[in-house]
Structure formats: structure tokens, C-alpha cells
Amino acid sequence: MTPDTRDWLDGLREFAAAERLARPPREPTERPDAAAFVAAQRAVLAAHFSTWIDGSLLGVLEARRRLAAADTKGDRRGGLDPDPAVVITTSPAGLTAIEAVLGRDDLFIADIRPAIACVREVECRLWCIRRPDPEHHRHVNHWSWIKTEVPKQRWPAFGRHRLGPHESYWLHRTGTSGAGEADARACHLWKWNGATAVLLEPFIDEAVGRL
Predict the structure, then answer these.
(1) Whole-angstrom distance between the N-terminal and C-terminal Cα of the chain?
(2) What is the DSSP letter of 88?
(3) pLDDT (tens digit, 9 = 90+) per residue, 2-31?
(4) What is the DSSP string of 147-210?
(5) Is the distance from CB of 136 to CB of 178 less than 8 angstroms?
(6) Distance between CA 197 and CA 174 in Å, rounded?
(7) What is the pTM of this model?
(8) DSSP letters along 55-87, please?
(9) Within 10 Å of residue 45's Cβ, how many Cβ atoms?
């Protein structure tokens, strides 16, 4: 990791910590099912993070090194760092989930942990306004979060998976950018029934990405 990347990563961590002190993440305590609602999100995200770190992260880093080696800017200032920061962006529930995964007694995690920052998406966006990195010179980004309030105008697209009374759809959105051939994005359809989250269909095609 270059000194410039390390400075950028340390700055992101400090900025995110300050943001959480100023605007602490809020849990949906007003919901009657709040405890189960948050616990289910954490479980879904923890399972994803564990699978991604164990099965995909090494490949992402290897793809990034190949991309950096092919970068026409080479080692000049502004070129791609072959050992980038790994920025994991997620929701408040996801922060708890990823920290638990990264707390495992694991040699690979111990080796890569100094390069990882786990932040909320808004924290990353605000930091990148201050210290832009639009071409991912310093970092790769992996995101994983759950849209728990899917607009009802989208529900007909998922009509093959009918909902019961008081049930709702969740969209688990995840992906990676900044790693060249390992870049990817996916969306998985879940439902929430007030007590548990149930996977309805993995890898759905999101025709309307902004809703």
C-alpha cells in the first residue's frame, strides 16, 4: 500500500468515526418487531460477508494487482495502487455484522485487516467528496446492504413470490468495484414476515435500480 493510499484510508477511518459521534446510526426501535428485524439483517449480512471474505476477497485482490500491472500510468502519481485499501460499505446493521466476521481468529483476516475500513455508505460518499478517488486509484469498494422498504410500485415485478399478510420484500444489494475483471454486482430477493427473513430468489434482475 502506498503512503498516499494509507493516508487516504486513515483519513476515511477518522472521518467515519467523527461522523458516527456526530450522527449516531439509529436502529428502528419504534417497530414492534425491532429486535428481530435488526437481528435478521445482521444474520443475512454476516453470512454474506463471511462468504465473500473467505471465497472472493483473495480473488478480488489478485484481479486488482493484474489491473494495476496493466495500468498505462504505471507507478506514476495517480496510477492504480496494486495493494489498495478495501472499503466495505454497508448499513448500521451491516457494521455490526462485518466487525463480528473480522473479529474471527483467522490468519488471512489478521493479514488483510489493516487494509480494511468498514463504513456506512453515506460516510464513504462524504469522504470521497473531501478526498475524491473516482477511478479507484487508492481503493476497491465492496458494498452489501439491505433495502428493507421496497416501494410498493415495485412489488408486481416480484409477483411470482406472493406475500402473505404483513409480509414485505427485502432487496439485498451487493457488489464490488475497482478490481477490474472481479467487478460485479448482484441483488437477492428476500421477504420479511415479522419474525424471520426468507430468501425468495438469488440474483434477480433489477430493472429499476433507483427504487
Answers:
(1) 37
(2) E
(3) 999 999 999 999 999 999 999 888 777 677
(4) E----GGGGGGGTTS---TT-EEEEEEEEEESSGGG-EEEEEEEEE-SS-EEEEESS---S-TT
(5) yes
(6) 17
(7) 0.91
(8) HTHHHHHHHHHHHHHT-TTTTSTTSPPSS-EEE
(9) 25
